[in-house]
Design brief:
Bound molecules: zinc ion
Number of helices: 9
Order of helices and strands: HHHEEHHHEEHHH
Strand order of the largest sheet: 1-2
Shape: globular
Number of strands: 4
Length: 227
């Protein structure tokens, strides 16, 4: 699962919880940020094999700290607790329910990975591995990613008040993510090394976070003059 994770970020943001979209963009990929970091440190292990599954080249054969069910729950709790100091630091409105949503957003990553991954997600440690393996079916997996993303964006647009120009930017961002997913799923490429893949994860995910930050600033400071 790749851009489908962002559907949860879009779907979680409402006018009521006021969680910044960029924070949700980190939350839904929090486990992958940990994973990429641990791969770079040589602690978690990854092989990149052409044709490993129809929709992905990643053989993530050892990732018990970032992607086991038990640690996914633990990281979700850590993220929910960490939301309070983050809000304090950045001056965002904090509510307990928003912290709970952050925790759910982090955990959603594991559930969506469960659908896509082959049986490489451990329940605990490095054993009892599960995964429904939708990545073995390239077109259905791609369709699910896009359907989820579209659904998330529709909810985001419906449940948040924003100027027209920002609506356009959100839709353009969504289309850009679709293009990224087309590239990831369908454009053949030579496998990168494990470390280069992990670096790519950091670079791309952070780029999306920055775009999410920028998108929510569009039209934010424009004052509407009374007639
Ligand atoms: Zn993942």
């Amino acid at each position: 699962m790749f851009v489908g994770h962002y559907s949860v970020a879009f779907a979680c943001r409402t006018e009521r919880n006021r969680i910044p979209l960029w924070v949700l963009f980190i939350a839904v990929q929090f486990l992958d940020y940990l994973w990429a970091t641990l791969v770079l440190l040589g602690i978690e292990k990854l092989r990149v094999i052409k044709g490993f599954t129809a929709g992905s080249m990643l053989d993530s054969y050892f990732h018990p700290y970032s992607h086991s069910l038990i640690t996914a729950i633990a990281w979700s709790v850590v993220a929910a607790i960490g939301y309070r100091p983050l809000c304090k630091w950045l001056g965002y409105t904090y509510t307990k329910s928003a912290a709970f949503i952050i925790g759910l957003a982090v955990f959603s990553h594991w559930i969506l990975d469960l659908i896509a991954h082959p049986r490489d997600l451990p329940i605990y440690d490095n054993t009892a591995k599960v995964g429904f393996g939708l990545w073995n079916y390239r077109d259905p997996e791609f369709a699910l990613e896009i359907a989820l993303l579209a659904g998330g964006i529709v909810l985001y647009l419906a449940r948040n008040v924003m100027p027209e120009i920002r609506k356009g930017a959100v839709i353009a961002f969504g289309l850009a993510l679709v293009i990224v997913q087309i590239g990831d799923t369908y454009v053949p490429r030579t496998p990168l090394t494990d470390k280069a893949t992990a670096m790519g994860v950091w670079v791309f995910y952070t780029l999306f976070v920055l775009i999410a930050l920028a998108v929510e600033k569009i039209g934010a400071h424009r004052k509407i003059n009374a007639p």
